[in-house]
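Good day; I would like, with your permission, to put a structural problem before you. A protein sequence and the structure tokens that stand for its backbone fold form the material at issue. The record follows directly beneath this note:
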Amino acid sequence: MIKKHIPNTITCLNLISGCIATYWAFQGAYQLALLFIVTGAIFDFFDGMVARLLHVSSPIGKELDSLADDITFGFAPSAMVFSFLSSFHIHLTFVPFLSFIMAAFSALRLAKFNLDERQALEFIGLPTPANALFWGALIVSLDGSIWLESEQFSQYGFYVILALLAVSCYLLVSEIPMFALKFKHWGWKGNEVKYIFLIICIPMLLLLGIGGLAGIISWYIFLSLFTQRNATQQQ
């Protein structure tokens, strides 16, 4: 009886991590917010694995997982963007609130995922954890950087943030296939894209640090688009 509650407990730890991340985001402590988003991602990885190992998957677990994911990977990064935009001297006070559109699109993405049977071996649209890691790493790398202190960035930076926000919302609910890091075997053939992705990730993290996470997600999106384009041309 106890083992059937273990996956849901792990999922709740994901949700709690998202709540804590949101708190720190509103405080402007972006590194701590990102830390708890990453912590939530770890719990999110293990809840499904544990459910499969224990053979206790359930409909309520699936619904709970989506709720937790929208808090950790939708609302928490939106709160980070909100706080970051609030630091700009913008005469239109409603602008920072536009960041919460991302939480709504994340919820739509998760709802689509639950109903879409095509996403067993790959994703359709950008996964919410990847989107959250992109924004978390981007905000952390920008906060306190020399770019933030430049006059050009202070005047036009929030336009760039809003443009990226629009792009990420589109990618979340798009019909663009994106590869999943799921291996049926460890050989090169059939896993070329995954291995190329992982090989490039290492120098990105070493050279860019936390900002490398944003670069890795951008690289993931580019490689998915490139792979899809080649597949379309070959058909």
The two ends are 50 Å apart (CA to CA).
